[in-house]
Design brief:
The chain is built from ten helices and 13 strands. By secondary structure, the chain is α+β, with helices and mostly antiparallel strands. Strands 6, 7, 8, 9, 10, 11, 12 and 13 form an eight-stranded mixed beta sheet that branches. A five-stranded mixed beta sheet has the order 1-2-3-4-5, with helices on both faces. One of its GO terms (molecular function) is endonuclease activity.
Length: about 300
């Protein structure tokens, strides 16, 4: 799911997202004020409405840029009336308050709601199309075969949780500089997580669930923060030299995450650790639980 996908779905189906506004599309990528805005609508009162789209979490830098542009627009076109709406997958409360205090409306569009809208209109995400270069997942095959053991005491799969209010997981998983090699903190089970085990990257929050399948490539050890990943921490990261593992991304699930609400409805996963105690970073997955989860990957 690219930022362009979210833009396209809003532009093509505004009635699903803004049902009371009567939006009519004027143009996508409309040039105004020295830059191109993502979408320009006209509402039922003939007012011009600018939509700016950000994938993942709305960062502090993006908030400032949008506020600056909105101020510039109002100063350059003082007699024209423009409203602005900022759409993002995750909008932290403090940034919502900042933008709304200067007149910019904020609309949070969770991954699940965007995916449901795409499904409703049979829209294929750009990174799901054949012309888009695949990631390492193309060689994964049947995921259930990644773990051979059937002994539930022999843990070989782990959930690695991240909070989207603190770390921009969605954009980190799609970053070309990071590629298929990603690192994650290990705060629990440091002696049990091993090279060769399977990792499931879990995003917490309203759209909680599994967003990537990985293979753990190193035992936990002290590692410095990697520059390509550091930029996705919100605020200052205090995790410069912490215990981490290196992982290879085998399959990205951003467009079709395995959501928590799906897993909670399965009797076989009634004891899944993250569903019972969601505070923490690292959670064991029993092999019987893995066999159930792997059906969705």
């Amino acid at each position: 799911m690219l930022e362009k996908d979210i833009e396209n779905l809003i532009a093509e189906h505004p009635e699903d997202i803004f049902p009371e506004e009567g939006f009519k599309l004027i143009r996508q990528q409309y040039p105004i004020g020295g830059r191109r805005i993502d979408i320009l609508f006209e509402d039922k009162f003939d007012r011009k409405v600018i939509i700016e789209v950000k994938r993942g979490i709305l960062s502090r830098e993006a908030s400032g840029q949008i506020a600056e542009y909105y101020g510039l627009l109002k100063s350059q076109y003082p007699t024209d009336f423009y409203e602005m709406i900022l759409c993002a997958n995750v909008i932290p409360k403090e940034r919502r308050l900042f933008l709304e205090n200067i007149g910019i409306e904020c609309k949070e569009l969770g991954i699940s709601s965007v995916s449901e809208l795409a499904k409703k209109y049979d829209y294929t995400f750009l990174d799901d199309r054949s012309s888009f270069e695949s990631d390492a997942s193309s060689k994964t095959g049947d995921t259930s075969s990644l773990i051979d053991s059937t002994d539930d005491n022999d843990i070989s799969a782990w959930i690695f949780q991240g909070n989207p209010q603190r770390y921009d997981i969605l954009n980190a998983l799609s970053d070309a500089e990071i590629g298929n090699n990603i690192h994650w903190l290990v705060n629990q089970h440091r002696k049990k997580i091993k090279k060769g085990h399977i990792g499931l990257i879990w995003m917490s929050g309203a759209d909680a669930g599994i967003y990537a399948l990985t293979r753990i490539e190193s035992d936990p050890s002290f590692k410095a923060e990697f520059p390509a990943e550091k930029k996705y921490w919100l605020g200052t990261s205090e995790k410069e030299n912490e215990i981490r593992v290196e992982m290879t991304i085998l399959r990205r699930l951003i467009n079709k995450p395995v959501l928590k609400k799906t897993l909670k409805g399965m009797a076989e996963l009634g004891s899944l650790s993250i569903l019972r105690h969601f505070q923490g970073t690292n959670f064991p997955v029993k092999n019987s639980e893995w066999r159930t989860i792997s059906q969705f990957l």
